[in-house]
Amino acid sequence: MLSKCLKYDLKYIYKLLIVFYLIDIVFAIFTRILFSFDNSFMLHILALIASGITISFMFSIVINNLMRVWARFVKNVYGDESYLTHTLPISKSTIYTSKFLSSIITMFTSMLVILLCIVIAYYSKENLEVLKNTLQIFATVMNSTTIKLILTAFFVIFLEFTTILQAGFTGILLGHKSNNLRMVKSIVYGYLNYLLVGVISVLIIYIIGLFNPNIMALFSTNINNVVAVDVVKKSLVLGVFIYITFICIYYFIDIKVFKKGVNVD
Amino acid sequence: MELLECKNIYKDYGKKQVLKDVNLKIPRGKIVGLLGKNGMGKTTLIKLINDLLTPTSGEILVNGKEVGIESKKIISYLPERTYLDKSMTIKQTLKYFTDFYDNFDIEKAKRLIKDLDLEIDTKISKMSKGMQEKLQLILVMSRNAELYILDEPLGGVDPATRDYILDTILNNFNEDASVIISTHLISDIERILDEVIFIDKGKIILCSDADKLREKEKASIDEIFRRMFKC
Questions:
Q1: Residue B104: how many CA atoms within 13 Å on its side-chain side?
Q2: Which is higher by pLDDT, A47 or B174?
């Protein structure tokens, strides 16, 4: 049943997102074509406009992805459509897991499309060389490779968005336990959940820092002082671990809250 | 074993108590009218049976089991509002019901849709509200369920549509199944009811066989209702 639920959830979210994907890809292609004419001032201006649109659509993709996933959740679980959702012969955890997985899958593809658009619009030997050189400096300092660095950045950003999605879901569930001002409370709880992840992450790193002076250096030195590379790496790994833990904790809290039952409008 | 049993159900919204100690038994093979004025708790009770609300206290058993996956397999529910995804076509909606309900009879649904002169590729958002409600009724009645729960199926519709709705219900429900119809428009459905339940201010105030009640009170259910609920 999970696969069936997932199929319908993905269809709903992609129905609009694909339009955004296509527009962004088209503008990325325009950007590339227009930038290739380097002897025309007007075409250069048009290239800059196309480039601006490409970048703004990248943001739109992420924002739309987040909003559409949450809107689908509210509509399906508490709105008119909830009368069908909750009367389907499937468990509450299946309903929730489908929403959760569909949000992760769509966010992942959105990020891939954004990456693809960047490549289409801006890939050139010179740009690649600049990027390589810049990343190589960081990679050398971090004792890593440029590919690893790019993958890590991609993974961290993806994790950040997944945390935002999850904090939003938990906010909606907690907000809708109340009998009034449900949407306002959902938004407030969502923000608080996200804030909580950040605060606790810093707190955990600080507590570890109490036993490890190198990590404490992150708190006691200013930005101009060099912090040991090993510490940055450790903090990054710790941060990733904390975020994944939080995503899992929120997931299980949500399942538990959801299983207790809903009160639809 | 009763098909549906509600034991000491209470439902509060904050300080407001909507249902108070509701006890109810619905046997198989009956058409039951859940009758009461607006805002007396009919929809709340129905939502509780369908897992759309959680009771403050009490127990609801369907076929002897708590409300859950098993009860949802055998209950076919028509809510007051339109619950279909409006971005879908009728065809996609039929596929959706086939995917999730093992007892959904797609051929019956297609036949009933054809009777309405509806094109299967019509988008639900392009249909009028009345048509959407009819489609919803068709989908609900095309399931071979054991219990049909219809919440205000006649609310806000013209007399001709009322006849269509009643005919669709009577001609399509599973013979061994029970039907609960919640309404305040009693005169329209009186003729088809086997049993009646009167609900007032969140309490069940009367539960009776429809014929016996008529005989006892020497009046129609509609008249009895008007007498009991006189403002």
A1: 23
A2: A47
The pLDDT value recorded for residue A228 is 66
What is the residue-averaged pLDDT of chain A?
A: 86
Per DSSP, B89 falls in state: B
Which 8-state DSSP code applies to residue B83? -
* CA–CA dist B202, B55 (Å, integer): 13
Number of alpha carbons in the 13 Å side-chain half-sphere of residue A249: 12
Identify all chain B residues contacting A90, using CB atoms and an 8 Å cutoff: 69, 72, 100
Q: What pTM value is reported for the model? A: 0.84
A31-46 pLDDT, tens digit each: 988 888 877 788 888 8
Q: What angle do CA B172, B177, B181 make, to 5 degrees?
A: 75
ipTM of the complex model = 0.85
Chain centroid to Cα A223, Å, comes to 27
| Neighbour count for residue A241 (Cβ, 10 Å) | 12
Q: Between A15, A89, A263, which is nearest B87 by CB?
A: A15
Q: How far is CA A251 from CA A99, A110, A166, A247, B132, in A?
A: 11, 22, 7, 6, 36
CA distance A8 to chain B (A): 9
| Amino acid, res. B85 | D
Measure CB to CB from residue B77 to each of A87, A91, A261 and give the nearest one. Answer: A87
- Least CB-CB distance to B81: which of A1, A80, A89? A80
β-pairing, B75-78 vs B147-151, is parallel
Chain B residue with the nearest C-alpha to that of A79: B83
Interface residue of A8, A17, A76, A87 to substitute, partner B, most B CBs within 10 Å? A87
Give the SS3 label for residue A117.
Answer: helix
The distance of A183 to chain B (nearest Cα, Å) reads 17
pLDDT value for B95:
93
Q: Which of B50, B53, B81 lies at the smallest CB-CB distance from A87?
A: B50
Number of Cβ within 10 Å of residue A249's Cβ equals 13
Residue A13 structure tokens:
């979210």
**CB–CB contact B83 A15 (8 Å):** no
A97 token code pair: 């897991």
Test the A interface: residue of B15, B17, B43, B52 with most A CBs within 10 Å: B52
Inter-chain residue contact A87 with B75, CB threshold 8 Å: yes
> Buried b / exposed e across B11-40, counting CB within 10 Å, b at 16+?
beeeeeebbeebebebeeebbbbbbbbeeb
